[in-house]
Amino acid sequence: MASISQGKPRRLSHKSRGFRVLQRGWVYLFVVLAAIISLFPLYWVTVTSLLTSHSALDFNPHFWPDWSWSNYSDAWSKAPWLHYFTNSLIVALSTVVLATMTSLLAGYAFGTMKFPGRNLLFLLILALIMIPGEATLIPSYLVISTLGWIDSYQAQIIPFAVSISGIFLLRQFFLSLPTSLWEAAQLDGCTRSGFLWRVAAPLARPALSVIALQVFIGSWNAFLWPYLVTRSDQFRTVEVGLQAFVGGEGGTDPTGLAAAAAFTTLPVLIVFLIAQRQFIEGISAGSTKG
């Protein structure tokens, strides 16, 4: 009897272990499929950028490139890309600085200070996320036009100087800070602003990295708004520069467009690969307390 009673738990443990292995296998399979689906557009753009014009216009899809590197040199010579890259860097970095600063100040206020209507104001700010960007295009354009900012850097920077998701992330982070830190700082004679810059901001560096990365990628990849508020190549960015390969007398050049899209995407990929660790740490740090 003793041997029988001891055998049952072993069989149950084997079943439980097998179920866990099967469950983990399904998770891995889902992750692999999600990765393939996510990476396939990048793979397809790369392959198309290396095809010959004849292969690109062929009805049958080509999953292996022809290694036609001349597409990149032709695409680079078709537009003032160096000027576009400079404009994109100016717009993206300026937007990052403003958005991280406003997110830090607003998140600090909502996370550490108590004032009348704090929760209501925070909910109203979060509600702005539900308004689609297309609904604000015309009002925003009219404001920019009234200010005389059409065809300028500030028209592409100021409308994105506030990040609602950044405010939310930093507010969550500051809520997770123990009150003993502020109490100890008060004993040392530290003011609210001193606590922000000497204690809170350095601790919030991972969350700030997430906001900076998100804002940089969003600003770099923006097309519709820069296209609407710019008139000349002097202020246009790389995404607007891709228009040179669409339409025109010869029609759309698929290989040139793919090559241009490939080297305009490269800076974003490099930045993300460098900052991916900080991105994961910042997301984890900002989700510790609701």
UniProtKB/TrEMBL annotation:
The chain crosses the membrane at residues 21-44, 81-108, 120-144, 156-174, 195-217, 256-275. It holds the Pfam family BPD_transp_1. One of its GO terms (biological process) is transmembrane transport. It is found in: Cell membrane. It is a multi-pass membrane protein. One of its GO terms (cellular component) is plasma membrane. The keyword Cell membrane applies. Its main location: membrane. The keyword Cell membrane applies. Residues 85-275 form the ABC transmembrane type-1 domain. CDD domains: TM_PBP2 (cd06261). Keywords: Cell membrane, Membrane, Transmembrane, Transmembrane helix, Transport. InterPro entries: MetI-like, MetI-like_sf. Belongs to the binding-protein-dependent transport system permease family. This is Sugar ABC transporter permease. It comes from Tengunoibacter tsumagoiensis.
